[in-house]
Amino acid sequence: MSTEQATPQTIEPASFAQQLRSGTWRAHEGSESHDFSQALLAGELPQEGYAELVAQHYFVYEALEEVGRTLAEDPVGRAVYFPELHRLPALERDLAHLCGPLWRESIRPTLSTVTYAARIRQMAQWPAGFVAHHYTRYLGDLSGGQFIKRIVRDAYRFEGVQGIEFYVFDEIKSLPKFKNAYRAALDGLPLTTAEQERVIAETRLAYQFNNEMMADLGRVHSTPQAA
Questions:
Q1: DSSP 103
Q2: Do residues 40 and 148 touch, judged by C-beta distance below 8 A?
Q3: What is the pTM of this model?
């Protein structure tokens, strides 16, 4: 029997990116529980319902990218300022395909979307809070959004990237590498422990806003499950 004592193993504390993911996982799962979301993921949502979702995304990302440009030189905000992520031009092309050339006159935000966008614009005064909303939207687009892209293309028989450009990130060569770099940027944020906890709480709130937006859409657009 060896007389050598086992060397105690040091447990590395979770990085901020890991804490953010684990601290919001339940909220993230809840965002997929609505009938509207389930119909979308099953490829059973009527196309007009999908078009309405794209319209709501337009108002959300308009606010998000507006604040992003405002915080591009901020010590915290600039950490996640990646112009290659910007979705507004792609959303405009998707809406033109889905709703026609006069799409700007035909779309309106729901009440929940107005509230969501207003909250995002408030983050111009709190850059760390902006990071919470940025993370919630873009990391979702780079992850589950790629799955949705395939479902939507098959469900509506879109050709090429027509109608799904929102989910196409041509300026990013490797999504896994980019996501790793994004998480590293989160870990490098100059935030105190208390501020990190505030960001995690704001991220949960961001998921709640998204849930309310999806619930609003579900009340307007009937799905096969709800029919």
A1: H
A2: yes
A3: 0.90
